[in-house]
Amino acid sequence: MLKEQLKGKNIVITGASGGIGADIAKLCAANGANLVLLARSIDKLEQLKLTLEQHQISVDVFQLDVSDTDRIKEVFEQILMKIGHIDILVNNAGFGVFREAHEAPIDEIKGMFNVNVVGLMACTSMVLPIMRERRFGHIINIASQAGKLATPKSSVYSATKHAVLGYTNALRMELDDYNVQVTSVNPGPIATNFFNIADEKGTYVKNVQRFMLQPEYVAQKVVESMLTKTREINLPRWMNMGSVVYVLFPRLFERIGKRVLNSK
Ligand code: NJP
């Protein structure tokens, strides 16, 4: 995939140490973009940096836990000092834990909201002034199909992704006059390490294995959307049809789809 507009652009990716974040980074590098990669696992970021630098681009890495908003401010100030501006922010860091609401410890609920929602908003806040001033930029928020259609055992995770979509939709309208694009990405299950935490027992992975998306494919769709007016990316398409029907006929959908919706 060749995307000429990405050459020389400054792209920041949170949660870039693995999964789709790392695959997005690889594709951006292959297209000549300069990268800033953020995650907690600094060793993995350093390793990735070595590979990506073969593309004759600049790669900076910073250790960042996005639940630490003070650290977000510190890191983004350093980034802006070093590279001047950010063209594209990919808010990708996130995690889920599948369990029923009555079993979810309050610290886990807070932790998930702090990473998936507050962290994403805090990173976004750091790029908004400069993107608005330059009248240029793209914010890509990795949400989920779970942000459109909640299912049993994903009450908290779904709630975080619903919050991401609400925020993203409002942001898009706020930035419409500033030539700053805002895209949400709503995938179904992707074959990444996500399930090591989310699905400890492996029940969900076993049930959805046959239609799991490959991270490279999701990354390709995300990178193709960069600097375009893509509103949202829904993968796989047929799964998004489920959330469309759900909005129209929620009661019927919950009744008929009960067995499928209970796949966790
Ligand atoms: O998962 P994984 P994915 N601060 O576990 C980082 C969404 N999604 O690529 O900090 C900063 O391989 C972590 O890095 P590290 C999902 O909700 C997924 O699948 O070093 N970074 C790693 O790089 C998430 O928003 C599926 O541990 C933190 C990355 O995040 C996004 O896709 C389906 C962090 C996670 O990589 C990427 O997930 C769906 C923190 N506190 C949506 N915590 C799916 N896989 O099925 C984690 O609909 N990270």
TrEMBL record:
Q: Which GO terms describe its cellular component?
A: membrane
Which Pfam families does this chain map to? adh_short
Instruction: Tell me the keywords, alphabetical order.
Output: Oxidoreductase
GO MF terms held by the record: oxidoreductase activity, acting on the CH-OH group of donors, NAD or NADP as acceptor
- Source species, domain of life: Bacteria
The record's listing under PROSITE patterns reads: ADH_SHORT
What family classification does the UniProt entry report for this protein?
Belongs to the short-chain dehydrogenases/reductases (SDR) family.
Q: What is this protein called?
A: Oxidoreductase
Q: Which organism is it from?
A: Neobacillus cucumis
Please name the taxonomic classification of the source: Bacteria, Bacillati, Bacillota, Bacilli, Bacillales
